[in-house]
Amino acid sequence: MTVSIKDGFKFLGITIVTFCAVFVCTFFLNFYIDAKSVAGLITDSQTLILYNAQMATAKFTCAISGGFLSLTAAVMLVFYIRLYVDANARKIGILKAMGYSDLRMALSFFVFGISVLAGTALGFGCGFAIIPTIYREMTVTGLPEIAVHFHASLFVLLVIVPTVVFSLLACGYAYLAVRRPVSQLLRGKAEKVVKPKTCKEKERSFLYEMCLKTLSAKKSLAFFVAFACFCFSSMVQMAYSMLDLSSATMGLIILSIGLVLAVTSLLMAVTTLVNGNIKNIAVMKAFGYPMHICALAVLGGYCPVALFGFAVGTVYQYGLLSLMVNIVFKDVGEMPDYGFNIVVFFVTLAVFVILYALVMLFYCYRINRISVKTVMVEN
């Protein structure tokens, strides 16, 4: 067995992402199922319009948030498996040399589904616990009281099915990842085709070249950096808008989910980036490069990615809320006007820049503590 159950618990990022997805979907889908039972009791036309709008909101929110976060969790799972295979390439190569088949080793990766099971189970439990509060917030005035019911089919859909699907995904991708020649696995890294440098590439400065190489070698990390900044930008601005459009409770939930996803994704990406470039940093320090140059060489290339993620998050939250107000709730009376809040945007941008800079300073400190002697002795 190449993967232990202990390894499955290490992937906290997947647990957090699946937790957030199931947490949101649990109370919205439960509300949707329970509220359908009172549809026939509504006689007032305005109440019926608002009821239909809220039912549409529940379906729309689950489709957008659940689908997007599920895709993110899948990308994160693939990234973790590839990282695990690369880190344990020699071990896998030895097992293959001993006669272990690719399928036998790939099947052991089902334990990665444990992280999904932990996230979905916790998300379902916490989502169901907050249902009474959500029901009070979403119940339309004049609508009969909606009783809370436990739906076993919802538990299967949000907890059991994702666990099985992600376990199969882990085994399938692992099967493809371990299908390397034994000699390549024993060397511990995949062979890469080195392209000859062009004249323009030769003229680039060392720092600029290092930034580009680091960014191109870790393309998957760019996604997580952009995703972290996307979550922060969209959720913080959306949370403020919820104070007028919905309630403080919904705004707090959105803000909490956004901050958790942003912190988790950013720390996971930057930690992996620094750990993967320890040798490069050690060599640069041995040649006398100062700390800020080492940090720029490793982390500098991701600053445009972070700003891109922030910009996309801003556009996303504005487009989503405009769609909800102008289409889903267009026939609902007394609906407040919604427009792009420039003040909130610049405040969020300022906080984002400060927090991002603090995270980078923390990792600069970590880079400065990397011992050249220790790296050389270990390798």
Short descriptors:
78% helix; 379 residues; mainly alpha
Explain how this protein is built:
With 379 residues, this protein is an all-alpha fold. It is built from 18 helices and no strands.
Helix and strand run: HHHHHHHHHHHHHHHHHH
Average pLDDT, all residues: 79
Alpha-beta classification: mainly alpha
Task: Quote the beta fraction.
Answer: under 5%
Query: Whole-number radius of gyration?
Result: 24 Å
Number of strands: 0
User: In percent, how helical is the residue content?
Assistant: over 70%
The CA-CA distance between the termini, in Å, is 27 Å
Q: Which word captures the global form?
A: flat
Please count the helical segments: 18
Q: Low-confidence runs (pLDDT<50, min 5 residues)? A: 199-203
Largest sheet: none
List the helices and strands and how they pair.
Blueprint: H1 5-8, H2 12-35, H3 45-87, H4 89-97, H5 102-107, H6 113-129, H7 131-138, H8 152-177, H9 182-187, H10 199-203, H11 206-217, H12 219-245, H13 248-276, H14 278-286, H15 291-299, H16 303-328, H17 342-368, H18 372-378
Helix pairs in contact: 2-3, 2-6, 2-13, 3-8, 6-8, 11-15, 12-13, 12-16, 12-17, 14-18, 15-17
